[in-house]
Automatic annotation (TrEMBL), chain A:
<feature type="coiled-coil region">
    <location>
        <begin position="111"/>
        <end position="144"/>
    </location>
</feature>
<dbReference type="InterPro" id="IPR000048">
    <property type="entry name" value="IQ_motif_EF-hand-BS"/>
</dbReference>
<protein>
    <submittedName>
        <fullName>SPT17 protein</fullName>
    </submittedName>
</protein>
<keyword id="KW-0175">Coiled coil</keyword>
<dbReference type="InterPro" id="IPR027417">
    <property type="entry name" value="P-loop_NTPase"/>
</dbReference>
<dbReference type="Pfam" id="PF00612">
    <property type="entry name" value="IQ"/>
</dbReference>
TrEMBL record, chain B:
<dbReference type="GO" id="GO:0005576">
    <property type="term" value="C:extracellular region"/>
</dbReference>
<dbReference type="InterPro" id="IPR011989">
    <property type="entry name" value="ARM-like"/>
</dbReference>
<dbReference type="GO" id="GO:0097228">
    <property type="term" value="C:sperm principal piece"/>
</dbReference>
<dbReference type="GO" id="GO:0007288">
    <property type="term" value="P:sperm axoneme assembly"/>
</dbReference>
<dbReference type="InterPro" id="IPR016024">
    <property type="entry name" value="ARM-type_fold"/>
</dbReference>
<dbReference type="Pfam" id="PF00514">
    <property type="entry name" value="Arm"/>
</dbReference>
<dbReference type="GO" id="GO:0005930">
    <property type="term" value="C:axoneme"/>
</dbReference>
<dbReference type="InterPro" id="IPR000225">
    <property type="entry name" value="Armadillo"/>
</dbReference>
<dbReference type="GO" id="GO:0046847">
    <property type="term" value="P:filopodium assembly"/>
</dbReference>
Length: 335, 454
């Protein structure tokens, strides 16, 4: 019996344990199913909630995206326009190729002009120089011709330049014929006029070039009369100025300045009002009235000019009466 | 020497005026001749006695005294300062008011020599009130007086802008501008130098010059027969051109560039230098202006200068001017390169490499810069070819760089490059890997198929 009871007991234990297992398993499944269910529900709720939120924001999101796409498009287009405009503007105004070309052509034309003008100017200057040289040479030649006037040919003897074998005389010969013979005069020293003027008061002798009075033309009528010695005349004419002390002192020196001060004082406050008292006879002469010659006749004033204006000469009349005028004369001029 | 000076001193105070005059004249001649004599005169303290009685003296004494002061002041700065310190400036200004032109000439010459040394001395001269009187002197009819007054004004205004402004305020520009037309050559020299010294300081002064309507007239000076008139005329134009692009534009519009170019072509030596610099300044301002210079045929005289001149600074100036012309765009560089000037520049650069002289270094530096500037824009390959064979390393870099820019695009050029032996030369060049030169060489090599490169 013990073994049966033990066997039954063990049976009962195993069955108990098995039942426990099954129940445990079943409960676990139930709990798991419940948890699964819970999480499914949670997912469902979250799904619906999220969809709802997104659907709420959907419009905004789409609008934003659309807006951004539009902006990008517009930016692209704007860039294209700006690109074209900038290219056009720069090519037309800033780096205008054709204007630059025209400008450079204008510059080169202007340069040519300037160069030609300068060339002309330089040529003109050269010509002037040449002319001056030529003139100088001419002058030299003429001077030489004048000096060598004695080489001119005469009736009897042909001169050097007029050889009988030549057809026509040498140009030198012609020059000689034209020129006046040169008399050797002492060279005049050229002193400038200003110097002479300044020198005159301080120099002690007459100007160096005047040895005698200047020669007068040979064919004039000689004036008659005894003449003074030329040396005396020169001495008198060129007598040096011997100014008084007062004049000689310069205007800027201290005593002159001091005198100026007292002079001013005196001018300002003179002691006498009439500095020069009159002489009696002088005044009498000065006060007499001298009438004008036109109005004064032999015996005082004439009536003509104030009393009547017409002159009458009865001796000249042909008939008994004067001229008869056609119109009546002006009343004022009647007597 | 000091014996003479001591003996002359009592003669200066003699009663007879002609003795005083002659003593002053003697002092003047002594001082004029030698520096030490002048110093001895200053040390002996004669100067105050020389000038104390100056206002009351007659004109010969004034002339002799002015001559003496000029002889002393011309030697050095200290002597000029000594002259100023004994109050000679007021006396000289009194002399400037005298009627006699000889006295005025002597006084203004002395003032000119004093003002020449230093800005402070010039300021002292201006403070003594000399400038309006000098402007009056310029209007006098005597030519010698005009010359000296113009040279004095030029000496005063050369030191600083304020002094130049003072001279301008006294109304000097109008008179100086009128005198440009005068036929006397020495007068024109002085007048042009005075105007250029005034114009060089600032834009406003240069614009004043232009408003005084000197422009077509100055160009006739550039054709004068006297060398220094041409030089000073070119200096004046240079000083005006260098300030702003508008002024350079104005000069180009009035045809000044053509005149300057002709002037360069007709002279030799240092006289060319201001003309060259004018072209450089005009071209430097903008590319249109440098194109205008090219169109006026400016490049050929510059090349001639480079080749013919022996003076170093003139060569440097010509190289600089060419660099300024060529550096703007490829067109400009092409015009410069066509004139076959790049080998000459290279020669100068290489040639002066061995010498150690400072001046040489300056010209070498300038030529290098000019060469670099031109090469960076040059796409005209036939001109670059000869450079490839001769150039030193740092120039080679630029040359090859240019080749590497042009060759990938132009097939005819590639063919030419191979046939002229350029590719072979390029292979011979050794360069460090990774350097710019190596990159350029690689670019060139990539243009050609492998067999040719081998």
């Amino acid at each position: 019996y013990f073994y049966i009871f033990r066997a039954i007991d063990e049976d009962r234990k195993t069955k108990y344990i098995a039942a426990l297992k099954i129940q445990r398993w079943f409960r676990a499944c139930r709990v798991r199913a419940y948890l699964r269910h819970l999480s499914k529900m949670a997912t469902l709720i979250q799904k619906w909630w999220r969809g709802y939120l997104r659907r709420k924001n959907f419009r905004e999101v789409v609008e934003r995206a659309y807006f951004i796409r539009k902006l990008k498009f517009y930016n692209e287009m704007a860039v294209r326009i700006q690109k074209m405009w900038r290219g056009y503007y720069v090519r037309k105004y800033i780096h205008n190729f054709y204007a630059l070309k025209k400008y450079l052509e204008a510059v080169s034309v202007n340069n040519e002009l300037v160069r030609s003008e300068l060339q002309e100017y330089a040529e003109m200057k050269e010509n002037e120089e040449k002319m001056k040289d030529l003139e100088k040479k001419e002058k030299e030649k003429k001077y030489q011709a004048r000096k060598m006037h004695y080489l001119l040919s005469t009736e009897q003897i042909p001169g050097i330049y007029n050889s009988p074998f030549r057809k026509s005389p040498d140009p030198m010969e012609l020059l000689l014929r034209k020129s006046k013979p040169l008399t050797h005069r002492k060279q005049k020293t050229e002193s400038s006029f200003a110097d002479e003027l300044y020198d005159w008061p301080t120099c002690k002798k007459p100007p160096a070039f005047v040895r005698a009075l200047p020669l007068l033309p040979a064919d004039r009528q000689k004036p008659q009369g005894p003449f003074r010695d030329p040396a005396e005349v020169l001495r008198q004419r060129y007598k040096p100025l011997e100014p008084t002390l007062r004049v000689r002192e310069s205007m800027n020196s201290p005593p002159a300045k001091a005198r100026e001060a007292t002079g001013r004082e005196e001018w300002r406050s003179p002691i006498h009002d009439n500095e020069f008292l009159p002489f009696s006879s002088y005044h009498k002469k000065a006060e007499k009235y001298e009438p004008s010659l036109c109005k004064s006749g032999k015996y005082g004033r004439e009536a003509y000019g104030t009393k009547h204006f017409r002159e009458v000469h009865p001796k000249k009349w042909i008939a008994e009466r004067d001229f008869e005028t056609l119109f009546s004369s002006i009343v004022l001029f009647e007597k | 020497n000091s014996g003479i000076v001591c003996l002359l001193r009592p003669l200066l105070l003699d009663v007879v005026p002609s003795i005083r005059q002659t003593a002053a004249l003697a002092l003047g001649r002594l001082a004029d001749y030698d520096v030490e004599l002048a110093e001895a005169i200053v040390k002996a303290g004669i100067l105050p006695q020389l000038i104390c009685s100056l206002p009351e003296e007659n004109r010969y004494y004034k002339k002799a005294a002015a001559f003496a002061l000029r002889g002393i002041a011309k030697h050095s700065l200290q002597l000029a300062q000594a002259v100023v310190q004994c109050g000679a400036l007021e006396m000289l200004v009194i002399c400037l008011e005298d009627f006699d032109p000889g006295v005025k000439e002597g006084a203004s010459w002395a003032l000119g020599y004093v003002a020449r040394h230093n800005a402070e001395l010039s300021q002292a001269v201006v403070d003594a009130g000399a400038v309006p009187l000098l402007v009056l002197c310029i209007q006098e009819p005597e030519i010698a007086l005009k010359r000296i007054a113009a040279s004095t004004l030029s000496d005063i205004s050369k030191h600083s802008p304020e002094l130049a402004q003072t001279v301008v305020d006294a109304g000097a520009i109008a008179h100086l501008a009128q005198m440009i037309l005068n036929p006397d050559a020495k007068l024109k020299r002085q007048v042009l130098s005075a105007l250029s010294q005034i114009a060089k300081h600032s834009v406003d002064l240069a614009e004043l010059m232009v408003e005084a309507e000197i422009f077509p007239v100055v160009l006739t000076c550039l054709k004068d027969s006297d060398e220094y008139v041409k030089k000073n005329g070119a200096t004046l134009i240079r000083e005006i051109a260098k300030h702003t692009p508008e002024l350079s534009q104005f000069i180009v519009n009035s045809g000044g560039v053509a005149a300057v170019i002709d002037c360069i072509g007709s002279c030799k030596g240092t006289v060319r230098l201001p003309g060259i610099m004018t072209l450089g300044y005009v071209a430097a301002h903008s590319e249109n202006l440098s194109m205008a210079v090219i169109v006026s045929k400016g490049i050929s005289p510059l090349c001639d200068c480079l080749i013919e001149e022996h003076e170093d600074h003139i060569k440097a100036a010509a190289a600089w001017a060419l660099g300024q012309i060529g550096r703007h765009t490829a067109e400009h560089a092409r015009h410069v390169a066509v004139a076959n000037v790049l080998p000459t520049l290279l020669d100068i650069f290489v040639d002066t490499r061995s010498s150690e002289d400072l001046k040489m270094k300056a010209s070498r530096f300038v030529t290098k810069k000019a060469l670099k500037n031109i090469l960076q824009r040059c796409t005209y390959l036939p001109a670059l070819e000869p450079l490839l064979h001769e150039a030193p390393h740092n120039i080679m870099k630029h040359v090859i760089g240019q080749f590497s820019k042009v060759l990938p695009h132009d097939s005819k050029a590639r063919r030419l490059f191979v046939t002229s032996g350029g590719l072979k030369k390029v292979q011979e060049i050794k360069a460090e890997p990774g350097s710019l030169l190596q990159e350029y060489i690689n670019t060139i090599n990539n243009c050609y198929p492998e067999e040719i490169v081998r």
